[in-house]
Write a structure and sequence with these properties.
CATH architecture: Orthogonal Bundle
GO biological process, one term: base-excision repair
Pfam families: Adenine_glyco
Oligomer: single chain
Structural class: mainly alpha
GO molecular function, one term: DNA-3-methyladenine glycosylase activity
Number of domains: 1
Organism: Weissella bombi
Strand content: under 5%
CATH superfamily: Hypothetical protein, domain 2
Shape: globular
Distance between the termini: 16 Å
Order of helices and strands: HHHHHHHEHHE
Protein name: DNA-3-methyladenine glycosylase I
Radius of gyration: 16 Å
Largest sheet: 2 strands, parallel
CATH class: Mainly Alpha
Length: 183
């Protein structure tokens, strides 16, 4: 039996598949990075299992996370999203997603969002060596720096905890536990 990070132990197969096939695998695709940033923002205050269960609904509701389309969402689209029971209907998070899409579209075109995010580590993955999720911090110095920079650029819902989770999910930080087969 595969040893996984302990945060997957009480999860269903969807959570284990996410861990095995996505979480912590470095991605340099701006669209995928935007998706992860968006999902992490919606996860704030909730469990990741809830987000995974609704992920397909998020993909449909947010045009497959096409930030160029999302950047043009208007008030009618916000109202439509607020009535979509398949997603988390938090207006602040919906508006933040649109805001973040606008920033990526205007300030970071042509995959430059990826270049920007990866520049904080010189394009290298940071590898931590934690034995359990209890020892993994809620955020680290890198997340604090990236969070402050994202906010300076105008991004919303990118506090240090959300940013740290985003950095883990996107593979910029490898926080697979030392006994995990993905380490």
């Amino acid at each position: 039996m595969k040893q996984r990070c302990d945060w997957t132990q009480n999860g269903n197969q969807l959570l284990k598949d996410y861990h095995d096939n996505e979480w912590g695998i470095p991605t340099t695709e701006s669209k995928q990075l935007f998706e992860l940033l968006t999902l992490e923002a919606f996860q704030s205050g909730l469990s990741w299992q809830i987000i995974l269960n609704k992920r397909e609904n998020f993909e449909k509701a947010f045009d497959e996370f096409d930030f160029e389309k999302i950047a043009h969402y208007d008030d009618d689209k916000i109202i439509s999203l607020m009535h979509n029971s398949g997603i988390i209907r938090n207006k602040r998070k919906i508006v933040a997603t649109i805001n973040n899409a606008k920033i990526i579209q205007t300030k970071f075109p042509n995959n430059r969002f990826s270049e920007y995010i990866w520049s904080f580590t010189g394009t290298h993955t940071i590898r931590h060596h934690y034995a359990s999720s209890a020892l993994t911090p809620k955020y680290d110095q890198l997340a604090l720096i990236v969070s402050k920079n994202l906010k300076k650029e105008g991004f919303a819902f990118t506090g240090p905890v959300t940013t740290y989770s985003f950095l883990q999910a996107s593979g910029i930080i490898n926080d697979h536990q030392i006994n995990c087969f993905k380490k």
